[in-house]
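Whiteboard transcription, Tuesday session. T.W. wrote the C-alpha cells on the left side:
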C-alpha cells in the first residue's frame, strides 16, 4: 500500500520523464518502427501502473498515526 502511495505521489514526474527504450542511441530520423512501438508500449504500461497506483494508493495518512502508539515523540526520549 505504501509503495502504491509513493508511485501515486511521483506519478506526475514519471509521466513527464523522457523515457528511451531503444537499446542503442540513434538520431531521431533513424528511429525504427519496432523501437517506436516498444517506446509506446513502455509508456502505455507505465501509465496503467500510475493510474492503478493513483486509484488504489489513496488513503488518509492520518489514520496511520492514531491510537495509543501514535505519539512516538514521548517514547523516543
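and on the right, the sequence the group agreed on:
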Amino acid at each position: 500500500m505504501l509503495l502504491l502511495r509513493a508511485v501515486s505521489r511521483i506519478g506526475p514526474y514519471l509521466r513527464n520523464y523522457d523515457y528511451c527504450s531503444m537499446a542503442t542511441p540513434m538520431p531521431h530520423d533513424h528511429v525504427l518502427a519496432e523501437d517506436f512501438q516498444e517506446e509506446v508500449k513502455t509508456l502505455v504500461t507505465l501509465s496503467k501502473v500510475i493510474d492503478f497506483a493513483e486509484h488504489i494508493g489513496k488513503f488518509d495518512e492520518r489514520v496511520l498515526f492514531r491510537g495509543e502508539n501514535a505519539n512516538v515523540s514521548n517514547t523516543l526520549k
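Someone added at the bottom: The radius of gyration is 20 Å.
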